[in-house]
Amino acid sequence: MYIDIDVHHGDGVEEAFYVSHRVMTVSFHKFGDFFPGTGDITDIGASKGKYYCINVPLNDGIDDDNFINLFRPIITKCIEVYRPGAIVLQCGADSLTGDRLGKFNLSIKGHASCIQFVKSFNIPLLILGGGGYTIRNVSRCWAYETAVVLDKHKEISNYIPLNDYYDYYAPDFLLHLIPNNNIINLNTQEHLYKIKTRILDNLQYLQHAPGVQFAYVPPDCFGDDEDEDEQQQLIVEWEGGGLSTPNAAAAAANAANAGAAAAANAAAAPIATLTHQQQIQQLRSPPPGGRIRRKDYLADFEDLPDRDQKLPI
Questions:
Q1: pLDDT tens for residues 238-250?
Q2: Structural domains in the chain?
């Protein structure tokens, strides 16, 4: 489960898992005329990922109380329904008051309360940083939140100790920020209630957490490692012949032993199933008139259209 409290929408992670139920994504962000412009409440995922994508779009000026009153019931319901085996919490500091880009009005304690709440579920938790464009406040925030993770936040002083960057914390030289009372909270109670109700209603469509053992896992398209003592998939290119794999060559050899007519065609591309050591020797000393090379799996992807070229996919 991925939770994002950065002021920007967590569009990258959402897109990566938009059609999958393997990861539930939850993003609390400023929505509207603001980068990246995505993350509407109606964006709920698609295909197998439908309803596993949660977007909480907010307006400028949201404060601690409003944010926490949304965060706790939504996250509680998500964990109750999805039952994640691990949680990734992205703690972008640009949702703090006073950020150069973000327009929220959260205090450091309000921001850190999200960590405390998620941590209380005792689920394996990975905590990441994120955005933040008033650097001194980013340092304040993550210093305090590191203390929260270590359960030392009650011991940390509000007075910043002397250090090489002490002057950056002027004029008060304090750890915690005071929310700006002049910022107007554009999130009305009616607006917040509608958001919470809509999201909790959507979560009711999830009857159970997905079973990982029943989920399709794509095969490894890059093959085995060269150092593994297993047979490597080879392609043999002979003069006058085409391409042949060990399985095809073995079938041709069987046909030849049986006296089948296919033996004549198989003779054009003779190959035997080789052990790992024999393959290495063959690679060092190619047979006369031909060469052995490893299949280039990356070449399979060279013809994929580039999204930047705006080609149809």
A1: 444 444 445 555 5
A2: 2-214 (3.40.800.20), 234-307 (no CATH)
